[in-house]
Amino acid sequence: MSFGIALGVGLLAGILAGMLGIGGGAILVPGMVLLLGVDQHTAQGVSLAVIALTALLGAMIHYRQQNVRLRMVLWMVPAAVLFSFIGGMVADGLGASSLRQIFGALVILMGIGMVVASWRLR
């Protein structure tokens, strides 16, 4: 593993996570798979571990800036925790190629959705 590339991927993911609230997974997973040769399942697991720490720090900063709606958090947490467990179980049964295709398609669709939504808000 190239520590320089891993550091660069982490740096980019951290900056974008802090700026955009993306959690870093959209950068970490492709960075590990394409640049570091990590298999899809491992990349997703590493990404989740990294995101847990970056999300906590980012959430604390946004909380101080009054950008966190605690009521909304309390409604989303139970569903997110439950379905992340289910999603992890489903991912374990899928092949790496299928996971890459699903991940890539989802990132593209979310990106298109964000761009279109920003045009509507002008």
SSE diagram, text form:
Layout: H1 3-20, H2 25-36, H3 40-64, H4 70-93, H5 96-120
Helix pairs in contact: 1-2, 2-3
Portion of residues in helices?
over 70%
Overall pLDDT score? 89
Structural class: mainly alpha
Q: What sort of overall outline do the alpha carbons produce when their principal axes are compared?
A: globular
Largest sheet: none
Q: Total strand count, please?
A: 0
Instruction: Give me the Rg, rounded.
Output: 16 Å
Low-confidence stretches: none
Beta fraction of the residues? under 5%
Q: Please tell me the total number of domains.
A: 1
Helix count equals 5
Distance N terminus to C terminus?
44 Å
User: What's the helix-strand series?
Assistant: HHHHH
What does this structure look like?
This protein has helices at 3-20, 25-36, 40-64, 70-93, 96-120. The N and C termini lie far apart (44 Å). The mean pLDDT is 89. The chain has one domain (3-120). It is built from five helices and no strands. It is mainly α and 122 residues long.
Summary, kept brief:
The chain has 122 residues and is mostly helical. The protein has helices at 3-20, 25-36, 40-64, 70-93, 96-120.
List its traits.
single chain; about 120 residues; mainly alpha
